[in-house]
Structures are given as C-alpha cells and as structure tokens.
Amino acid sequence: MRLAIDVTLDYWIAQACDVLLLVEAAAMADQRLERQNLHVYCPEPLRAVAGEEGIGQRTWALGEGAFRVEYQAVVAIDRPDVELGALGATPLRMLPAETVQYLLPSRYCESDRFEGFLDQEFPGLEGGALAAALSGWVRTHLCYEAGTSSGVTTALMTFAERRGVCRDYAHLLVALARAGGIPARCVSAYAPGVDPPDFHAVAELWLDGAWRLIDATGMALPAELARVAVGRDATDIAFMTVFGHAMMNEQRVSVRRLDG
Fold it and tell me: Would you place residue 195 in the very low, low, confident or very high pLDDT band (cuts 50, 70, 90)?
C-alpha cells in the first residue's frame, strides 16, 4: 500500500514563541518513505530532534506572525495482517525494558481506574484475545462525535460519556489494555478514509513480541496506517505544540491511496 500525504497548517502567532512540530511520517521497517518535503515559513532555521523511542522526528521552529507549514510525502507500507485473537500473552516479568513504561498510568490514560471493570467484564482473557475483546468493546460502546471532547478529556471521562473522537478512542483502548497487563501506547498517524480528514490517533499494543496497531474507531486498517510518532498519550504525539498563543487560519490534511 502506498499513501500520498499532503498537509497544510496556517496559523497567526502574535508574539514570538517556540513551536514543536510532529508532522513527518516516520521511516520504519514496515513503512518506507519514498519521498517527503517539509517547508516551514518562519524567521529562523529549523532544528530537528529524534522522536519518542527514536521513532520519527520532531522539528523545532520559531513562530512569529504568519506561520505556515507545508508537508508532502509518499509512504510505502508493507505490514501484514495479523489475527489479534491468536496472539499469545507475555508474562510481565518477561517484557522488554522499553515496554514497561507503557504499562503504567499516564495523564490521559488512567489505567489503574479500570482494573475492576476488566475483572468484571473480561474474566480469564489475556494477550491477543483480550486485546481483540477490548478493541471490539470500545468500537461498539463509543459514538464518534466531532467536538464532543477537548484537550483535557481523559480515558475515564470518555468511558463515562461514551463518545469522542479518534484520540479519545485511542486513550480508552490504551488505558484498558494497560489495566489488563498489556503494554499499550498512543500513535499519531496518517490514514486514508478518515472522516473528517485530519491527523489520526490509534493505539499500539505489545503482543507476542511486537507492537500491533489497532484503530478502535474502525476507520483505518493497520495495513493503511503511516505512523508519525508514538508516546504514552496525546501529550507525546500532538502534531503541533505552541509554547505561547496561536490562532488557526487553515488546517488541511489529505491522505489518499496510490495503489488499489
């Protein structure tokens, strides 16, 4: 699968401040960058730093006045389909060191608050069988509604409201998986067919020795997701963090299939 990505961010920043961008698709074993081009219209040179877990990169820029970002890329994805339910569980004591942080509660994923719910609703399940059941539960019990959540909405709030957008679906699945003893992290990604077109957020669970992508909204298949970044929750994967104040003029994200 090959994806063509086209992003435009147009903001007005009244007072000079630092801006951290996270919009470039990551070069990884299962996704190859055929080409990419990033233009940031700002008064000083850009500075690139490695992303979380060494996945992708973040770009520092100085924002002042008209601030515009243009990004285009073609990404070739080679990621086989996996039957989640067939994947075995990994004993916690055998987990790789880098996965342990993704077992713990974080700002938006209060996994410790869901342990009783899992014991009651999913007794005896573990590993891939539990992951599949949790993903199915989130998909069927939440209603996708734009504008129903904000930057302070947590997994527990989404669980209570039973509605949200992609980041809320990802937060809830990640929190539930962690509560069930499965390392889970949030992933920002590009995907075709997302409605409305935008940056997309999904989950990635550590199962049977590897990270497995899961889109609990059901809008994107794992084989069609181009990762941008990974992290504990939305704090780590925001496409743009402004250390000041900015006003949006335009934000456009287009992702289309080049094959099939």
Answer: confident
CB 188 within 8 A of CB 237: yes
CATH of 84-237 given 3.40.50.300, 3.10.620.30, 3.40.50.720, 3.40.47.10: 3.10.620.30
pLDDT > 70: percent of the chain: 100
Which alpha helices (DSSP H) does the chain contain, by range? 115-121, 127-141, 155-161, 166-179, 234-237
**pTM (predicted TM-score):** 0.95
For every residue of 165-222, DSSP letters joined together read -HHHHHHHHHHHHHHTT--EEEEEEE-TT-SS-S-EEEEEEEETTEEEEE-TTSSS-G
Fold (topology level) of 2-77+239-257: Immunoglobulin-like (2.60.40)
pLDDT at 111 over 60: yes
Beta bridge partners of 144: 164
